[in-house]
Amino acid sequence: MMLNFQNTVRAISSRIDLTRQSEDLPSRIDHDNASVASAAAFDPLGVYLFVTLETSREVAVIDAHSRNELMRIDVGRAPQGLLVSPDRRTLYVHNFMDRSVSVLDLSPLMQHGLADATQWPRCPLCQSRS
């Protein structure tokens, strides 16, 4: 196959089989029209996978079983880390270039299966000090 912009460089998330020390190729998740996938976290039940897309300023929400992207959530500049709260209702995203933390309400997704997440106003405890 000839290389072109569609297949030369792609942002993907890969599953690594630690026993075999190899990538599980059929489990690859292609983040089409996105940038570097820099961090990932499962919700505590392993139903959803959240992936930061650094230069796209987004978090991709993936159904962990079907590996289908459900939605993307706009966050701050250069998201590089994330954490899902133990109760599965809140997603915290570290935005490196903004020096901020986005706080997202995941209740519509977790309680009703709706592809929706609301960003809360900036948390005063999460803002950097000037």
General shape: globular
Poorly predicted ranges: none
The amount of beta strand, in percent, is 35-45%
Radius of gyration from the alpha-carbon trace, in angstroms: 15 Å
The largest sheet is: 4 strands, antiparallel
* Number of E-state strands: 12
User: What is the oligomer described by this structure?
Assistant: single chain
What level of helicity do the residues show? under 10%
Q: Which structural class fits the helix and strand makeup?
A: mainly beta
H/I helix tally: 1
What is the total domain count? 1
Residue-averaged pLDDT = 86
CATH class: Mainly Beta
Order of strands, main sheet, comes to 5-6-7-8
The CATH architecture designation is Beta Barrel
Describe this entry's structure for a reader:
With 130 residues, the protein is mainly β. The chain has one domain (13-119): Thrombin, subunit H (Beta Barrel). The protein is 5% helix and 40% strand. The protein is built from one helix and twelve strands; from the N terminus they run E-E-E-E-E-E-E-E-E-E-E-H-E. It has one helix at residues 107-112; strands spanning 12-13, 16-17, 22-23, 29-30, 37-42, 48-53, 58-63, 69-74, 79-84, 90-95, 100-105, 118-119. Strands 5-6-7-8 form a four-stranded antiparallel sheet, with no helix packed on it. A four-stranded antiparallel sheet has the order 9-10-11-12, with no helix packed on it. A two-stranded antiparallel sheet has the order 1-4. The longest helix has 6 residues, at 107-112. It is globular, with a radius of gyration of 15 Å.
